[in-house]
């Protein structure tokens, strides 16, 4: 999918897939601004994601995220979304209307190694849900919204960005 001059590049994927790190590098390489929506949520609410989950529940975090994403009016940005952005069709449709959606795909073992302890990560998941179950649940959603998929368990963030740029140019 070709990117228009003022459109966004939206990175989606599981925690540990490298959205924030790749987003910063990609923004620099493409002379674009960068936004991490997890940071926007935290600054708008004044709490860490984990505190929101602990105090108000995972569902409330998803609602806050959806509201924030629907209110985003950005042009020419790289946007790293929270991993649960894909639960909102309205939010993903909004993001897709102004951008190219890139799924940073990594296998479960890689994600678990990269993140380690998920207990303080602020995951928007059911309390009884394991990380593996969350991974299985989200995979089809990521694929559903992705314009581009980059399989990235064994490559550097620099290489991830080069692959994204290559796919944007070739499509």
What is the CATH architecture term? 3-Layer(aba) Sandwich
CATH topology: Rossmann fold
Number of strands: 5
The CATH superfamily label reads P-loop containing nucleotide triphosphate hydrolases
**What characteristic shape results from the CA principal axes?**
globular
Distance between the termini: 5 Å
- Percent range for β-strand residues: 5-15%
CATH class: Alpha Beta
The sequence of SSEs as H and E is EHEHHHEHEHHEH
Q: State the secondary-structure class.
A: alpha/beta
What's the overall average pLDDT, rounded? 91
Any idea how many domains?
1
Query: Helix segment count?
Result: 8
Describe the structure.
With 171 residues, this protein is α/β, with parallel strands linked by helices. The protein has a single domain (8-170), classed as P-loop containing nucleotide triphosphate hydrolases (Rossmann fold), CATH 3.40.50. It is built from 8 helices and 5 strands, in the order βαβαααβαβααβα. It has helices at residues 19-29, 37-45, 49-56, 58-71, 89-97, 108-115, 131-145, 157-170, and strands at 8-12, 33-36, 77-80, 99-105, 148-151. Strands 2-3-1-4-5 form a 5-stranded parallel beta sheet, with helices on both faces. It starts with 7 loop residues before the first strand and ends with a helix. The mean pLDDT is 91.
